[in-house]
Design goal:
Double Stranded RNA Binding Domain, alpha/beta, flat, 34% helix, 169 residues
């Protein structure tokens, strides 16, 4: 019993030490403390995706310590995003009907531009980010599945956008 208690205490202390140094702060301090997220443009066939992606990016940026969202581009950095590609491709079909999809993957690509309106510096321009998501269905309702998958894909892209902003080179 004593050995088990000792092992549990040791395990908790090791796991706790790993989380001790975690921080949401960028590795290097940013040159700006306010960021304006411009309305996202949609140059693809992604249905109503710009609203979902805008919300996800803004939510992720509010979680970055020392950075706040600005209501206008004056005296702030500006993030511009354009959805440039959206596609859905068949992955597998139903066993009894090969014209019916059983799973598919959706892919989205965006271009990002980040500039500082105070200093005039452009940190990156038309930086391409893309990601995909595998979707599996049991009943064959692909439209519902796609509507449910788009927020998850937008979340993955928003994570990548925030990673690039926090780790400016």
């Amino acid at each position: 019993m004593k050995k088990t208690l000792l092992l549990v205490c040791l395990l908790v202390s090791v796991l706790g030490a790993g989380c001790m140094f975690y921080s949401l702060k960028p590795i290097t301090p940013l040159e700006f403390d306010k960021i304006y997220v411009a309305p996202i443009r949609n140059d693809s066939f992604a249905p109503q995706t710009q609203e979902v992606l805008t919300k996800r990016v803004r939510t992720k940026l509010t979680n970055i310590s020392g950075l706040e969202l600005a209501p206008s581009p004056e005296n702030a950095a500006t993030l511009e995003i354009t959805i440039i590609e959206f596609g859905r491709s068949l992955a597998t079909t139903q066993e009894d009907d090969t014209s019916q999809a059983k799973s598919f993957s959706i892919k989205m690509a965006i271009h990002c531009t980040l500039s500082n309106n105070v200093t005039g510096r452009v940190y990156f321009k038309d930086y391409r980010i893309s990601d995909f998501l595998e979707c599996h269905t049991l009943d064959g309702d692909l439209q519902v599945l796609q509507r449910q998958a788009i927020p998850r894909l937008a979340n993955k892209l928003a994570d990548q956008v925030c990673d690039i902003i926090c780790h400016l080179w």
